[in-house]
Amino acid sequence: MNIELRQLRYFATVAEELHFGRAARRLHMTQPPLSQTIMALEEMLGAPLFERNRRGVALTAAGEALLPEARRLLEQSAGLAALVQRAATGASGRLSLAFVSSADYSVLPPTLRAYRAEYPQVEITLKEATSDLQLDDLLEGRVDAGLLIPPLPDRARQELEYLPVLSEPLVLAAPAGLPAVAHAGKRTGAADLRKLAGLPLIIFPRHISPGLYDAILSVFRDAGITAEVAQEAIQMQTIVSLVSAGMGIALVPQSVSNLRRPGVEYLPLVQSTPLVETGLAWRRDNASPVLRGFLELMRKRI
Questions:
Q1: Does residue 2 or residue 7 have the better pLDDT?
Q2: Which CATH superfamily is domain 92-167+278-301 in?
Q3: Where are the domains of the chain?
Q4: At CA 39, angle to CA 34 and CA 44, rounded to 5?
Q5: Percent of the chain with pLDDT over 70
Q6: What mean pLDDT comes out for the span 56-61?
Q7: What crossing angle do the helices spanning 289-301 and 61-89 adopt, rounded to 10°?
Q8: Those residues with Cβ within 8 angstroms of residue 186's Cβ, 6 or more apart along the chain or in another chain
Q9: Is the C or the N end of the chain the one with fewer CB within 10 Å?
Q10: Fold: same for 92-167+278-301 and 170-274
């Protein structure tokens, strides 16, 4: 049984007018083809929908049952064009976004606020992941885009696009009250890494984020001291928590200073530091309109 929307529209119009002549005029057609369409629908459904007599037209019990369902289907069909247009323009759909933990304290919150304001009907799926895991997810198509720390390895450059989003210096995260830090902070407002030589360093594993790892060690090298790596952790929250516990010091992107933990002080360094970059990566062949809208918003914001 294949009921056409045209048949339901004719039926609903007659049910509202309870008069075939008025319904035909409303539908901009003559009465005979309207009557024939209704009779064909009744034959298809196996039950009369209208009682016809000299006094007029009335809905049968079958017609009363069909009318709300017919209206519902007609309303849904009327919204199909708008639904398709929203999906085609990226105004609705789903966006899966991965991010490194440091982005949670810098670019991620304002970006999400702006995107949700512009695209409220898009469902956003978030996944916190290190840069190496994001690259695997991107290459396998498990996420649409990822906020990560470069560089991209050779295996990824052929398939991924990349947009720099943020560059920031490294700052010192140290246990509160550390004498060398307290003295430096009072005197200059900045810490001298040479005064901290020999203190244990908490850092990302290199295979997780080689760009950040190398940037941190280059600061020690340029200061003429050797980094004493004591602990490794894959999340910024964990690194800062270990600093709070007095396990050592850390160099973190400046935005991580927005992560407040009791017992942790953040200070700029006397030494110049390389800028740590956060960028957005996505598959070159991803034609999603939702992703396209997200990229347009990101480009406007940087």
A1: 7
A2: Periplasmic binding protein-like II (3.40.190.10)
A3: 5-88, 92-167+278-301, 170-274
A4: 125
A5: 93
A6: 89
A7: 40
A8: none
A9: N
A10: yes
Question: How far is it, in rounded angstroms, from Cα 246 to Cα 175?
Answer: 6
Greatest mean pLDDT range, 6-15, 75-84, 183-192, 251-260: 251-260
Question: 5-88 has which fold?
Answer: Arc Repressor Mutant, subunit A (1.10.10)
Residue type (1 letter), 146: G
Q: Is 0.90 surpassed by the pTM of this model?
A: no
Please tell me the CATH code under which domain 170-274 is placed.
Answer: 3.40.190.10
- Tokens linked to 294: 């997200």
Helices (H), strands (E): how many in the chain? 11, 12
- Residue 27, both tokens: 């539908």
Task: Show the tokens assigned to 79.
Answer: 């919204």
Tokens at 200, concatenated: 């244990």
b/e code 236-273 from CB counts within 10 Å (16+ = b) = beebbbbbbeebbbbbbbbbbbebebeebbbbbbbbeb
- Within 10 Å of residue 55's Cβ, how many Cβ atoms? 7
Instruction: Quote the pLDDT of residue 1.
Output: 62
Interval 257-293: pLDDT, tens: 999 999 999 999 999 999 999 999 999 999 999 999 9
